[in-house]
TrEMBL record:
The keyword Nuclease does not apply. It holds the Pfam family Glyoxalase. This is VOC family protein. It comes from Chitinophaga filiformis (Myxococcus filiformis). Residues 1-25 form the signal peptide. It comes from the Bacteria. InterPro entries: Glyas_Bleomycin-R_OHBP_Dase (IPR029068), Glyas_Fos-R_dOase_dom (IPR004360), MMCE/EMCE_epimerase (IPR051785), NTF2-like_dom_sf (IPR032710), SnoaL-like (IPR037401), VOC_core (IPR037523). Residues 33-177 form the VOC domain. Keywords: Metal-binding, Signal.
Length: 327
């Protein structure tokens, strides 16, 4: 899958907004999680094009066309004149799969359910950058039902969401909550699924070569030495994920804006200081970057190390440790 399964669309790091419980929490019926959602579509190729070309899914399996007998149709409340079914399973991100159903010579209803109709559904996709996602989808001609709204209070405080339509009129959603939701402040015993809790999956693309390691170190320190806030932010966007986690002894942030603010404040506190590379080493996608920090007269006045996690060539998390300060 392109970008190792993540929705790339202009940084479209889309993940399925689904709850996946553990076997322990679902032991009454031995459920492990949500496997897939099924959607009936009026035009199979149109649906495949939308999910692959616009949302960057990949079609993995196909069944059919399969003729359906009269007993099956009766049990599933289908019109007896409806033709064979073709099913394609699609995949993206770390949530559930989406299964597309197309019935040839379909005699069922072609009217989309209304918002308050029983059985009406929607699928929400998580994105780390909802503004970029909206801009990209609009460039593809996708229709949105209003503007994004951020929940101000309550259990979903901090969540931003907006609905959009597929080409055949099904309602779907973009959602993001980079700093968590309101209910999490109360330390609940059960937490909803979140992309932040999805384990990192290593692949060959996450194992850095010596050349890639050196390039990462060079770009990382160039960004931290850049005193122009706007240019620095553009550099962060090219090297760091949209929801990059940064942790310092006295500062924690999620996202490029918070990291850019920290770097700017650091530069203001130490005018003329610059970072330089001491050494760098890596174990697959984990990096230890040892650095010096100081002015021209004392370039190694401060020494420290950054613990970096790399995912798909970008820095996903950065923990900064201060080792020594020369007197």
């Amino acid at each position: 899958m392109k970008q190792n399964g993540f929705l790339k669309a202009a940084g479209f790091v889309l993940l399925m907004m689904l709850f996946a419980g553990s076997a322990q929490s679902q032991n009454k019926v031995s459920l492990l999680g949500v496997d897939h959602f099924g959607i009936n579509v009026p035009d199979l190729q149109q649906a495949v094009n939308f999910f692959t070309d616009v949302l960057d899914f990949k079609v993995v399996t196909q069944i059919g066309p399969v003729p359906l007998d009269s007993n099956w149709k009766e049990a599933n409340h289908m019109n007896q004149a409806t033709g064979p079914v073709t099913i394609k399973m699609t995949r993206a991100g770390d949530g559930a799969n989406i299964e597309l159903f197309y019935y040839d010579k379909n005699k069922g209803s072609t009217t989309q359910p209304g918002g308050d109709d029983i059985g009406a559904t929607h699928i929400a996709f998580y994105t780390a950058d909802i503004k970029a996602s909206i801009a990209y989808l609009k460039s593809k001609g996708v229709t949105f039902l209003g503007e994004p709204f951020t929940m101000p209070v309550g259990d979903t405080e901090g969540e931003t969401w907006v609905y959009f339509l597929t080409p055949w009129g099904s309602k779907m959603e973009l959602v993001t909550y980079p700093n968590g939701k309101g209910y999490e402040k109360h330390n609940p015993g059960v937490k909803l699924w979140s992309p932040k809790n999805v384990p990192v999956k290593l692949s060959a693309a996450d194992t850095l070569s010596k050349g890639q390691l050196q390039q990462l170190a060079t770009r990382h320190l160039e960004i931290w030495n850049n005193t122009a806030a706007a240019a620095r932010l553009a550099g962060l966007a090219s090297l760091y994920t949209a929801n990059v986690l940064f942790v310092d002894a006295s500062y924690v942030s999620t996202g490029q804006e918070g990291l850019n603010t920290f770097i700017g404040n650091l530069q203001q506190s130490h005018p003329g200081f610059r970072f330089s590379l001491a050494r760098i080493e890596a174990n697959h996608n984990m990096v230890r970057l040892f650095w010096n920090y100081g002015d021209k007269a004392h370039p190694s006045l401060v020494k420290g190390v950054d613990i970096i996690t790399v995912e798909q060539g970008k820095i996903k998390s950065l923990y900064a440790f201060l080792d020594t300060v020369s007197k």
